[in-house]
Amino acid sequence: MADTRIANDDEDHHHLLELTVRDLDSPDLEKSASAPSLASNEIIPLLDQNQRPRFNIFSSSSYTRRKPREEVIKVSESEISPLTQFASWVWSGSRYSGLLCMALSSSLYLIMELLSLSFSVQPIPLFETAFLRCTIILILSYICLKRIGQPVFGPAHARKLLVSRALVGFLSLFSFIFSIQMLPLSQAIVISFVNPVMASIAARVVLHEKLKITDIGGLACSFFGVLFIFGPTLTVQVGSEVKTESIKGNHHIYAVLLGLFSSITGGISYCLIKAAAKASEQPVNTVLSFGLVACPAAAICMFSLESFVLPAFETLISMIVLGLLAFCAEVLLARGLQLEKISKAANVLYIEVVLSQLWIFSTGKAGSSGLFSRVVGCLLIVISVSYTIYMGPAKDTE
What we know:
Blueprint: E1 2-9, E2 14-21, H1 27-34, E3 54-55, H2 69-79, H3 82-92, H4 97-118, H5 126-147, H6 159-180, H7 185-192, H8 195-207, H9 213-243, H10 245-248, H11 251-280, H12 283-305, H13 313-339, H14 342-348, H15 351-363, H16 371-395
Antiparallel strand pairs: 1-2, 1-3
Helix pairs in contact: 3-4, 4-13, 4-14, 4-15, 5-12, 5-13, 6-11, 6-12, 7-11, 8-11, 8-14, 9-14, 9-16, 11-12, 11-13, 12-13, 15-16
Membrane topology: Multi-pass membrane protein
Domain EamA: 101-230
Family: Belongs to the drug/metabolite transporter (DMT) superfamily. Plant drug/metabolite exporter (P-DME) (TC 2.A.7.4) family.
């Protein structure tokens, strides 16, 4: 048994804390236990004017009635919704978490594309759209980091990587916006899906990741699937552009080169996202750093290169919804790259093409022309991504 004593020294104004340990079998303790003053189940502190004041560190059983820890844990787990449990499992509860995050990110990008096509009630310039989207991403990233108690600008040792990721990501985004304004949609899509290939090559050079034959074969299979899907449309558009070549001049070549530059910088950006997310231990920091650079840059381009269009209420709501989805997609992308090897994580991004084709087939918008090549392309991508998911996390332990 232990008694704690506190003594006050008026001259030095110091407090002395004394802890006395007694043997439970001692006769003094038995006498004190049999005294009438201690008949209750609560031990009363002994106070004497001639002695140093005491207080007992033990409390009665009536004040310590708590539920066992196991019961508290069970109650808290039962109150968690299935959606929250699934999100926690996807984020860090499975060895497939990296690939699952990439798949969910691709799915969200597809949902954004479908929403923009279905609910576009008012045409908005691209830089204005990019400005609002980057602003929403910046605000949500800041709120998220403040709520979880992480430093907004990341740890000091990771800030160079975060700044590099922001600058390279900014170059990739804005070069893609410029190229998509001058290229047909199918050509822009094909060039944008060179990005995973460039990311794998950049990972081999920058991060020294091992690039196996199976990784190269998976990426090649997926990219050929994209060519099978968009090949017929691409041929028709190229043929129609030959007739107007005298009007366009060399603008088409510049647009293609700008699109390739966007893919190269996008691949390097993936490597910087992975390195910065690992260094800062928080993928949201990479999203915030990108917003800090892209938001003011988009504002400058919006006012200097385009005419500002005031969006209607319905258009503004749809743009805000797309901004929220973009934030979730960016965070999942950063988390997937943080957890998984880049060549495998980037290959999962091709699943967006398959999902878009399935949506076209389900809505009956797919014409008979090029149907066989589309089916072959989807099969190639499905085989490649399935093999990556089957072989990836079990074999690669980084």
